[in-house]
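Ops channel
N.P.: pipeline sanity check, posting one input/output pair.
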């Protein structure tokens, strides 16, 4: 409860900071830069990458307290583009009324790590608009049994080593790889975002967070082919509320234990989420190999599962497709995890599965008022190397 209160206090602080910044912005002059003035074309055919970079240079270098880069209605063709700090302007807002599109030739972005990236920036806001990465051709290449020379693909939107970031009302369509990545950042708010990709699109995680603290995600809908939200090492104080997931692989902490020396994950809350037809619901996963990593202080609250294959999972023998499995024992220590008011339907008999490490058993696992059913089978729980307790009504019968 102490950790939950701490995380909530962090989110409140984050919102108070944003409100203060918004109020301050109302009292100062905002200098606006229209990308059309820098030569951008809104026909979706002419490359506007340099025009966007020039608009950024002007807004970033402005002496005004706040600057705005305005993208009017239209379609803007962009190649891989990186915006870097430090800016003289304390806040730069991208106000997008149009759609930013990638080349239909996936090879143009395919060799880049990122399409639309921010590195070492402070006080960047992205409001509205859509990013269309046109990733379906690359997915087809990866899914083809005849092609082996497909590029990895690019993340659509990434923030690295940045702070005081806000993404609001944005739509991300058909990313080649991950849609949004938050890496090494602090004080991030993502709100009212829509993420859309096909259910069979490979490696198209909706939002990935790692090595970051004080991140909040609210009122976001994610339909994709991989994890709706994936949470990597070094994540601390992450709050997610009113999240819709499906299709997709659920909300996952991990996979962890990729490396021996690995930072832990702590103070993560998921509240008022709904999963529709996903392969997993609430998942913690680690490879079966030595690691200094850990998972601590996780709260899953008020969650609805609708035809989810694996609603509740801790899997410390994670090995997708059973290929190149390490065959060791996970060093990741999982502790203090609460599942409260989880209800809905599972499409498999084992609705709750805790498969923990033999040398580092899961501890402090708590089930409170869990009600999961399966239309065709009697639901079951599976427990291995786990310690905890159950409170209230529990279905399937608890094995804790």
């Amino acid at each position: 409860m102490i950790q939950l209160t701490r995380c909530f206090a962090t989110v409140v602080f984050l919102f108070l900071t944003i409100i203060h910044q918004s109020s301050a912005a109302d009292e100062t002059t905002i200098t606006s830069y229209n990308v059309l003035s820098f030569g951008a074309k809104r026909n979706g055919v002419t490359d506007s990458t340099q025009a966007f970079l020039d608009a950024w240079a002007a807004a970033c270098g402005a002496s005004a307290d706040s600057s705005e880069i305005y993208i009017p209605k239209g379609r803007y063709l962009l190649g891989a583009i990186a915006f870097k700090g430090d800016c003289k302007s304390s806040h730069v807002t991208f106000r997008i009324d149009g759609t930013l599109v990638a080349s239909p030739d996936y090879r143009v972005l395919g060799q880049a790590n990122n399409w639309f990236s921010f590195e070492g920036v402070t006080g960047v806001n992205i409001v509205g608009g859509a990013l269309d990465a046109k990733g379906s051709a690359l997915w087809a290449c990866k899914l083809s049994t005849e092609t082996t020379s497909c590029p990895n693909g690019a993340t659509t939107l990434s923030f690295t080593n940045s702070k005081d970031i806000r993404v609001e009302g944005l739509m991300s369509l058909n990313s080649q790889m991950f849609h949004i990545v938050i890496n090494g950042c602090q004080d991030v708010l993502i709100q009212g975002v829509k993420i859309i990709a096909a259910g069979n699109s490979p490696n198209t995680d909706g939002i990935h967070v790692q090595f970051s603290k004080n991140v909040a995600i609210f009122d976001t809908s994610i339909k994709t082919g991989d994890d709706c939200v994936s949470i990597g090492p070094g994540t601390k104080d992450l709050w997610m509320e009113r999240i819709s997931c499906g299709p997709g692989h659920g909300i996952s902490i991990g996979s962890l234990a990729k490396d021996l020396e690995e930072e832990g994950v702590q103070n993560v809350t998921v509240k008022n989420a709904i999963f529709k037809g996903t392969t997993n619901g609430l998942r913690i996963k680690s490879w079966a190999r030595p690691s200094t990593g850990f998972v601590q202080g996780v709260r899953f609250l008020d969650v609805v599962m609708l035809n989810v294959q694996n609603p509740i999972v801790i899997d410390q023998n994670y090995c997708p497709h059973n290929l190149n499995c390490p065959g060791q024992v996970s060093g990741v220590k999982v502790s203090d995890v609460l599942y409260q008011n989880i209800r809905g339907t599972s499409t498999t008999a084992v609705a709750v599965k805790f498969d923990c490490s033999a040398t580092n058993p899961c501890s402090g696992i708590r089930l409170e008022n869990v009600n999961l059913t399966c239309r065709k089978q009697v639901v079951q729980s599976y427990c291995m190397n786990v310690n905890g307790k159950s409170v209230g009504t529990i279905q399937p019968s608890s094995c804790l």
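N.P.: looks fine end to end. The chain has four helices and 30 strands.
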